[in-house]
Amino acid sequence: MMNHRRRTQVVTSDDEEETPNPQYTQKRTRLSEQDNSNENKEEQKKEAVSKLPRPVEDAKPIGEPIKSSGKGKKEKRHYESFEFNGIKYTLEDHVLFKPEEKGQKPYAGIIKDITQGNNGNVVVTGQWFYRPEEAEKKSGGNWKSCDTRELFYSFHRDDVHAEAVMHKCVVHYVPQHKQLPKRKDHPGFIVQKVYDNVEKKLWRLGDKGFEDIKQQEIDVLLEKTLQRIGELFDIEADETLNDGEDQMKIKKKLKEKKCFTS
């Protein structure tokens, strides 16, 4: 995994490829109807062309700057939100970013800053999540996932073009001792661990060993999850997850206990 995920390159989405004009056929029974048929075809073609995907537009900031930084050519204006392809994005939105290479999964991150320089380009600062297969261990290899929806939270930030944003996403922050929300009821990603991309270590989301400002950041995200999906049930103390153990195993153990006691 690269420390600098993305700088300047913007990959176009597959669904932005130009689609061919549909072909129209009509039965021609009378010579007098042929001219009308041709006129109808031209109208249909114009209508079809108007419905073709439009080229990707440049991202544009919304409203007045909330502050400025730098001087001269390096001056930047900071905004609370921007618009891209008709969608409004705001600070603290969870989003997916286009990957650097074709075939890679999209990057997930949180929009932490939105700036525009004198060149007019809109840039966002993304705070990145890591997929388990991207998170390297200091001893070698990669960390294991407890769930296919899992992402690792991190404090790693990097600047990318706003046009790299694909769409918004949902991330649930769940303490290690809580049961995971059901996919059907609450679709989205799951975060239970924090990844240190420098030391290549994992920390539990509920650990209190982070700096005050970082701990406050995590506490706010945990609270937002509770407000969105409600209270989650506790996992029994002896069933708390160990690294590499998934909740499918825990559910199996709980079922075995229930069958044994019934």
UniProtKB/TrEMBL annotation:
InterPro entries: BAH_dom, BAH_sf. SMART domains: BAH (SM00439). Residues 1-77 are annotated as: Disordered. PROSITE patterns: BAH. One of its GO terms (biological process) is negative regulation of gene expression, epigenetic. Residues 30-61 have a biased composition (Basic and acidic residues). Pfam families: BAH. Residues 87-206 form the BAH domain. One of its GO terms (molecular function) is DNA-binding transcription repressor activity. Gene3D superfamilies: 2.30.30.490. This is BAH domain-containing protein. It comes from Glycine max.
